[in-house]
Amino acid sequence: MIPFSPPKIYQEVIDGVAETLRSGWITSGPKTKEFEQKLLEYTNAKRVLCVNSGTGGLELVLRWFGVGEGDEVIVPVYTYCATANVVVHCGAKPVFVDVGEDFNIDPGKVRAAITEKTKVIIPVDVAGYPCDYDELNALVNENDIRSQFKQRSENQTKLCRILILSDSAHSVGAEYKGAKSGALCDVSVFSFHAVKNLTTAEGGAVCLNLQEPFDNDALYEQMRITGLHGQSVDAIDKINKGHWEYDVVEAGYKWNMPDVLAVMGLIELKYYGDKTLVRRREIFNQYSKSLEGYQWAQIPPYDLEGKLSSYHVYLLRINDISEDQRNEIIKKIFEKEVSVNVHFKPLPMLSYYKNLGYDIKDYPVAYDNFSREISLPVYFDLSDEDIKTVCDAVIESVESIINK
Ligand SMILES: Cc1ncc(COP(=O)(O)O)c(C=O)c1O
Q1: Ligand 1 centroid to 202 CA: how many Å?
Q2: Mean pLDDT confidence for 232-244
Q3: Burial level of 303, CB count in 10 A (0-12/13-18/19+)?
Q4: Which of 86, 208, 256, 361 has the greatest number of CB atoms lying within 10 Å of its CB?
């Protein structure tokens, strides 16, 4: 069976984890700090804080910005539930908007959804393909949009406009007009979950890029404290002689990344640009080359208009089929020992959000994308022969259903 996305674990990663386990320091410490520094150099963000999940990172930023009851946060319907769940955790309302043909949030629909309650927009780089950051960054700076922004927290008063918080869970290494994901808007959050291109098993990072009067170094400290119980001194500082005493300045959370996980990311990052992304791009190109000749195949965008994907998921769409036909095709592909997937079931189709009153009929592009979508396996060790097996399975399965 060809799996969908097993992690790439280099021997060096195993050795690095073992060495960290033996080092006497396994939770947040020198490895986490080093990983933050290397991510900063890689992305060109102003400051990077590692956390124990992308979800935790997104919630940390919403809470830092003072998002709460009565506030609205604009979220695309085409995403993983984490993007909207964190808004709910904070007591605010997710305002869903439809996406475009490229699966990403539609800036025109974002504009129409903005109200005086809007505090944050969360674009999601679906499958690693960057959103329209120029449009989104310009939108929140327009005079009439700024003037309806209602400030309710110290940080909102300081920013004086809607915050752009990118859910970059998929897009480590993606590029937009020559700049890297992590440095494309106010704040971006990566995920290093097990299925991601770069994984620490579980983990994430908050990339800070706020302009003056914000001080990103001070923000880093403040967020680090919030993510560690509000404790003024962290564990490694506490063991230094004379630093036993600490204070708790707020009822914080537990979002810190441990060294034993950071070391995995640190080693993978060394090979990320030159090896991981290169192979993933080759896989994407081979899929496109094999499938683009078929009239039923709609090839996903991954290198267009100054946007370069991180090649996280290959989102194939089949033209002119129903959701039921798509499901039948998936069944047939699995019968041929190939694992595929669907990214994503739009949020209004999930019970929790449906029960809140969201209706998928209001998001026709998202539904159309979803109903015809099949995600193909992409992982470092997928061989050229495997790619051919996947393509043959897809072609035979699609043709057996559409010619029925
Ligand atoms: C689009 C998106 N956002 C957020 C997350 C949450 O990331 P994590 O699993 O690291 O909490 C994921 C995880 O799969 C995701 O796909």
Answers
A1: 10
A2: 71
A3: middle
A4: 86
